[in-house]
Design brief:
This protein has 354 residues and is an alpha+beta fold. It has seven helices and 18 strands. α5 crosses α7. The structure holds 4'-deoxy-4'-aminopyridoxal-5'-phosphate.
Length: 354
């Protein structure tokens, strides 16, 4: 076992922080001064190091590039008004990461590296966490195969890394969604539940086709009957019909178990709504729209928290919503943001102090 003491820290001599306005940074383009790197070789994790953010050198024969053993996570840290910093539910992402690793025949990353390494890295770069409403530090842990051998087989070597970038408010404009019936994101027995890099690469073509038709994202349907809701682009989906919030169940292994999804389920219950995790077909949604019981439709994810859907198109049926009148999803978003940013009590114990 690697103890926290074994993480070698080499600090950068200069900081890029002074050249940035933390109140106004584009997402995913500016990385903090340091990164964490660990190598898996000879059946064990070694060389765990926090060092200045810098390019990495890999072989042109790198196995991840050729055969796609590559997974990642997305997490956020927040600074509260009293200056203390917290990571939102990192253990949930840690567990999901190792589920992805198992499915991709990659080694598990121990907690001492994933959680303790993340905590230490953020401690080193803590001045990078914006202390402003709706701002946070985005945390990107990832792992890729690191053999330099051509040939389809699980790699013997892997690299695990964490990089960080400050992020501002995500102006979640209500989205137009196209219900996709031809292309699929995931199949039962496949890798939909894993945060595997290839899932994102393969979703780009169908998403671009929907964009050409004037839509922001696709609503993925199931691979067999093309009628059960799966995910809204890269977000989990919720439909509110009457006083019940319905979100697709995770049993088939085709849906990523979103940490925001789980948090939103808890908050909806706190608000007194009934929450059902079950298969929901697009026909049920259309029927509810037609009989006036469909109240709100939204996606959930770490990046945007909640994205309201203003138009949902299924075949020739166009369902339009006046999202300005919605009350439930804005309230869920407010409650979740207040917990994350320290304005409300952390009643579910979701915050992990750095
Ligand atoms: N589904 C997919 C495919 C995603 O990439 C994400 C973003 N990680 C989500 C759902 C939402 O997950 P989370 O709430 O954990 O960010």
């Amino acid at each position: 076992m690697i103890g926290a003491m074994d993480i070698l820290i080499t600090k950068s001599e200069t900081s890029k922080l002074s050249s940035l306005d933390l109140g106004n940074v584009p997402f995913g383009k500016h990385f903090t001064d340091h990164m964490l790197v660990a190598d898996y070789e000879d059946g064990e994790w070694k060389n765990v190091e926090i060092k200045p953010y810098q390019p990495i050198t890999i072989s042109p024969a790198n196995a991840a590039i050729h055969y796609g053993q590559s997974i990642f996570e997305g997490i956020k840290a927040y600074r509260h008004e009293n200056g203390e910093a917290y990571i939102f539910r990192p253990f949930d992402n840690f567990q999901r990461f190792n589920k992805s690793a198992e499915r991709m025949q990659m080694p598990a990353v121990p907690e001492e590296i994933f959680i303790e390494g993340m905590r230490k890295l953020i401690e080193v770069d803590k001045d990078w966490i914006p202390m402003k409403k709706d701002h946070s530090l985005y945390i990107r842990p990832f792992m890729f195969a690191n053999d330099d051998v051509i040939g389809v087989k699980p790699s013997d070597k892997y690299r695990f890394m964490i990089i960080l970038c400050p992020t501002g408010p995500y102006y979640a404009v209500p989205m137009k969604i196209y219900v996709e019936e031809h292309f699929v994101r995931a199949v039962p027995g496949g890798v939909g539940f894993a945060k595997a890099a290839g899932n994102y690469g393969s979703s780009m073509y169908p998403t671009n086709e929907a964009k050409k038709k004037g839509y922001d994202q696709v609503l993925w349907t199931d691979a067999i009957e093309h009628k059960y809701l799966q995910e809204f682009g890269m977000m989990n989906g919720f439909v509110i019909i009457g006083n019940t919030a319905i979100t697709p169940n995770l049993d088939e292994g085709t849906i990523l178990a979103g940490v925001t999804r789980d948090s939103v389920i808890a908050i909806l219950k706190d608000m007194g709504l009934t929450v059902e995790e079950r298969p929901i077909s697009i026909h049920e949604v259309v029927d509810a729209f037609n009989n006036g019981t469909l109240k709100e439709v939204f996606g959930t994810g770490t990046a945007a928290t909640i994205s309201m859907i203003k138009e949902l198109r299924y075949k020739d049926t166009v369902m339009e919503f006046d999202t300005d009148k919605w009350t439930i999803s804005p309230e869920v978003k407010r409650r979740l943001t207040d917990i994350r940013e320290g304005r409300a009590a952390d009643i579910h114990e979701w915050l992990f102090k750095i």
